[in-house]
């Protein structure tokens, strides 16, 4: 943007703070960005981390766009300057129910980690399964993230003989669960949510990752648009790899919509928010076209099913 002359003659300046992926650090980072005089903030990934920063941005009148926080309650507070380029847990819960039903799974185990995102997705998935009467929840519990041995909870899950394990938490634990299930000769298929969409899952699980499926917004490499293709080509030329997950790319899309709004309305946060709510319609971005509803949520269904093949590649499954 700056090489092209900036926005209306003004150069873009990035102010970067690390939220440490904890609510406490996020509040500190948000306060620092507000003190620095930013008109908008992009981030972050975890819902609980975003929630800790939300009130600070809202009180300061700063536009805030999350790139990976999917908890439903984040957009239920009436904050007019809060948006997200990621979808919501209730959307994902609906798609999870559809995927499980289509596969014919009737006895379903659901495992989460008690975080805002993970518990929210688990609850939404359970709600849709019960509403559709498409299966029986035979196990619903949480693990403690960061542990190295999940054999005890895996033994409990094996004992209820589910047709499938739906795991709604993050990729480090998913990779470890897959590896330990193989070591324990547990052949229950496992399907995960979008927080397992990270190539590091394969590094953790090893060959146990083959056959694992997860629900996620479509990967950039699977978006057949000129903008996505150009972005991926430039990214790979610079970093010699593709993005490890969709979430960093959704941060890029938050930048894209902000640039469009500032070009149209200038750097006033109220004007930016008004433009995003009312005027931004189907803007071409890296992950497809973007519009926002009155709550600041992204419009449209982004979720698809992926499967990890024997090479550790994420393969988009047909609808």
Describe this structure as you would to a colleague.
- With 319 residues, the protein is of the alpha/beta class.
- Helix content is 41%, strand content 16%.
- It has helices at 23-35, 47-60, 89-102, 116-132, 151-159, 171-183, 200-205, 226-239, 246-265, 269-278, and strands at 40-42, 63-66, 82-84, 107-112, 136-142, 164-167, 190-192, 213-217, 283-285, 288-290, 303-308, 314-316.
- Strands 5-4-6-7-8-11-12 form a 7-stranded mixed sheet, with helices on one face. Strands 1-2-3 form a 3-stranded parallel sheet, with helices on both faces. A two-stranded antiparallel ribbon has the order 9-10.
- Helix 4 (116-132) links the parallel strand 4 (107-112) and strand 5.
- The longest helix has 20 residues, at 246-265.
- The two termini are 37 Å apart.
């Amino acid at each position: 943007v700056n090489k092209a002359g900036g926005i209306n003659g003004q150069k873009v300046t990035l102010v970067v703070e690390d939220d440490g992926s904890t609510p406490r650090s996020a509040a500190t980072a948000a306060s620092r960005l507000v003190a620095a005089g930013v008109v908008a903030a992009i981030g972050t990934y975890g819902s609980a981390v975003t929630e800790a920063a939300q009130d600070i941005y809202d009180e300061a009148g700063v536009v805030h766009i999350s790139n990976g926080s999917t908890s439903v309650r984040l957009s239920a507070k009436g904050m007019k300057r809060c948006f997200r380029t990621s979808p919501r847990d209730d959307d994902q819960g609906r798609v999870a129910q559809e995927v499980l039903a289509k596969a014919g799974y009737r006895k379903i185990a659901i495992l989460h980690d008690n975080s805002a995102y993970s518990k929210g997705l688990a609850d939404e998935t359970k709600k849709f399964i019960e509403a559709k009467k498409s299966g029986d929840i035979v196990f619903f519990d949480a693990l403690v993230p960061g542990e190295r041995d999940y054999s005890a909870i895996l033994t409990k899950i094996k004992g209820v003989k589910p047709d499938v394990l739906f795991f709604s938490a993050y990729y480090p634990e998913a990779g470890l669960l897959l590896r330990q299930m193989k070591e324990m000769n547990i052949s229950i298929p496992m399907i995960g949510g979008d927080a397992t969409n990270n190539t590091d899952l394969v590094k953790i699980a090893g060959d146990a990752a083959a056959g694992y499926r997860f629900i996620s917004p479509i990967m950039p490499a699977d978006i057949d648009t000129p903008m996505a293709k150009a972005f991926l080509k430039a990214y790979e030329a610079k970093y010699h790899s593709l993005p490890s997950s969709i979430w960093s790319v959704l941060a890029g899309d938050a930048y894209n919509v902000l640039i469009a709004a500032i070009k149209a309305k200038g750097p006033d946060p109220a004007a930016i928010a008004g433009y995003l709510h009312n005027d931004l319609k189907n803007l071409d971005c890296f992950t497809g076209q973007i519009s926002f509803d009155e709550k600041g949520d992204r419009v449209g269904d982004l979720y698809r099913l992926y499967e990890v093949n024997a090479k550790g590649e994420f393969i988009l499954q047909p609808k």
